[in-house]
Specification:
alpha/beta; Immunoglobulin-like; six-stranded antiparallel sheet; elongated
């Protein structure tokens, strides 16, 4: 019989398996357990040889000299005899690495990775261009298998050349199976094994930073699982036949994904979620978090119109975590997916808000997408698009993330924008012209622009976790790809002539309901190379000699014309000459000029002097 280790408390703080000079410290929260043991490769998987010390506060711990990094392990839980449950094993809730979602935890040294001189700083939010990415389908090298983090690293030069300076990675917490969107986390602290595990994600972040690209990690705190979920009844206790210590055990447990909403009011669970949020910054050097569906953190039904179902503890949890992020990691970004047009989401915690820096904006995507996919020009609503362009939260235009495609908007019964425009003919003139009209609105409107992977390639297939991006389209649609590069360069002011696109100030000064034409002015400090005028034509009719106002006198040069032959051999290349203004006020501005603009086209003007 194996000799039992002494029941003494661990000498090191922290949760999970923590390597140190004396071996490995283990600590787990199991308040209803009668006894807890460790089993693993270090003791021949003996389930009674290694007891943990009861710290009398719901926590159990032990220090093992014989355990080492890469050893596999599980906790063995004994419940009170009168519960009638046999001993059972659980994966460590804090495991950074697992063999798979139903396998074993693996002891992992969080400090062993060589980050070199990584001291990357995310770009100012007014200069961010976000690219939403799903690791499993972004770049697949082995047919029939998901893509990996190392595969994705190979495309960093492509993203840098495109002009992307931030990638938002869909959830990579360990999930059930090998194929998933990632919104079913089984082990929130572990990096998905099929993608490469924790070291692979660190390599990914390090490579992104070396290419000038920030990394935003998508996290799921509105529910866990529901499958392959060792957190479920972790120490055997349950109430109302629900999930036990990590979850609500009443009507608040219910979510659209199962009865697995974490108990935001329980101190240990709040600590668990906060530890997870901070882990991404501390251990993986990420530059921000994107929180999935926070509407189900703050309300049982995911509704702002049902205050009786609000979850105050969920709101205070978000405030607490965001406060910690802002205090400990200044300059990093915290993004909410709420989609309820709730300004309090992005108000400061001091003012009573949730403390997010920005939120996904339904007020942009819904009217803009509807306008560009509508078959009939008469159905395009210039007022609705103008309102979408100018919408903002808290007087800060960069508190919203704007897009025409995201993982939600190109799945769940919806297609890619070019496919929605003309099904089965994404390479058609109509699909190209109107989808890029939408992209140009994303990249010129006030807000933080976001693209979804493959959008710049005119990807036609709706998002599925087993269908990879078709990279042959980079050659087939080289003109469209060039348009995205040019737009991104202008949005980031890389040529030094369009600083206004990074500015807070804007004015939508021209809306022609009949012509479906909009013009708006953006500026930063109103200096040279600062004012930018954007003109949008939402009809299949070109315009010549069309008069609009201009904010300053002088020559306004055409910096971009989405109708150019450079972007498509069948585009009209309608003339859009530089404009010499005249001293005649128009549209409430001091000057005016005549423009030419092609069908379904966006043009951008700015001044040299």
């Amino acid at each position: 019989m194996a000799k039992k280790a002494p029941r003494t408390p661990a000498k090191h703080s922290g949760m999970g398996a923590i390597p140190n000079s004396q071996g490995v410290t283990f600590r787990v929260w199991a308040p209803h357990a009668e006894k807890v043991y460790l089993t693993g490769t270090f003791n021949g998987w003996n389930e009674t040889a290694t007891p943990l010390f009861n710290e009398k506060n719901g926590y159990w711990s032990a220090g093992l000299r014989d355990a080492k990094v890469e050893d596999e392990y599980r906790y063995v839980i004994h419940t009170p005899v009168d519960w009638g449950l046999p001993p059972f094993t659980r994966i460590d809730p804090y495991a950074r690495k697992v063999t798979n979602a139903t396998g074993n935890g693996i002891i992992y040294d969080i400090d062993a990775f060589d980050w070199g001189d990584d001291n990357f700083t995310i770009a100012s939010w007014n200069e961010l261009i976000i690219y939403e990415m799903h690791i499993g389908t972004f770049y697949v090298k082995e047919k029939g298998q998901p893509g990996t983090l190392d595969n994705a690293i190979e495309k960093m030069p492509y993203l840098r050349e495109l002009g992307i300076n931030a990638v938002e990675v869909m959830p990579i917490m360990e999930f059930s199976g090998d194929f998933s969107w990632g919104y079913n986390p089984s082990h929130p602290f572990a990096i998905e094994r099929i993608y490469g595990g924790p070291d692979a994600f660190k390599r990914f972040v390090k490579a992104a930073h070396e290419h000038g690209i920030a990394v935003i990690s998508d996290v799921v705190f509105n529910h866990f699982g529901p499958s392959d979920l060792d957190l479920w009844r972790f120490d055997g206790w349950k109430e109302n036949d629900k999930g036990g210590i990590y979850f609500y055990n009443d009507h608040r447990a219910a979510t659209p994904w199962g009865e697995t909403r974490p108990d935001y009011g329980r101190g240990e669970v709040r600590h668990y979620l906060c530890d997870n949020a901070l882990m991404w910054f501390e251990e993986y050097h990420v530059d921000g978090l994107r929180w999935d569906a926070i509407t189900y953190i703050k309300n049982i039904l995911g509704s702002d119109a049902s205050p009786a179902n609000d979850i105050p503890d969920g709101w205070s949890l978000m405030q607490g975590i965001n406060h910690e992020i802002h205090q400990r990691f200044p300059g990093r970004i915290s993004i909410a997916e709420d989609m309820k047009v709730n300004a309090w989401v992005t108000k400061s915690t001091g003012a009573g808000g949730a403390g997010f820096n920005a939120q996904w904006d339904s007020e942009f995507i819904n009217p803009v997408r509807q306008s560009i996919i509508a078959r009939d020009d008469g159905l395009r609503d210039a007022d609705a698009v103008a309102k979408a362009i100018g919408f903002r939260y808290d007087e800060d235009v960069f508190r919203r993330i704007i897009f025409t495609e995201s993982h939600d908007e190109v799945a769940n019964g919806r297609a890619r924008v070019p496919e929605e425009i003309l099904p089965g003919r994404v390479d058609s003139w109509f699909s190209k012209k109107r989808s890029t009209l939408g992209a140009a609105l994303v990249l010129t409107s006030p807000g933080v622009p976001m693209l979804f992977q493959g959008q710049e390639l005119l990807e036609d297939r709706w998002f599925q976790d087993k269908v990879p991006i078709d990279w042959t389209r980079a050659d087939d649609e080289s003109g469209i790809l060039k348009m995205y590069r040019d737009l991104i360069a202008l949005r980031r002011n890389l040529l030094g002539m369009t600083r206004g696109l990074c500015g807070q100030s804007f004015q939508i000064y021209h809306i022609d309901h009949d012509a479906k034409l909009i013009a708006f002015h953006r500026w930063d400090v109103s200096g040279l190379h600062d004012s930018v005028v954007v003109v949008v034509n939402m009809t299949n009719q070109s315009r010549d000699g069309y008069v609009i106002g201009f904010p300053r006198a002088g020559l306004w040069r055409t910096r971009f014309n989405s109708d150019s032959y450079n972007y498509g051999p069948n585009f009209a290349n309608h003339p859009t000459a530089d404009v010499q203004t005249r001293a005649e006020g128009y549209d409430g501005l001091p000057c005016s000029g005549e423009i030419g603009i092609g069908p379904y086209t966006v043009i951008i003007f700015s001044q040299d002097e």
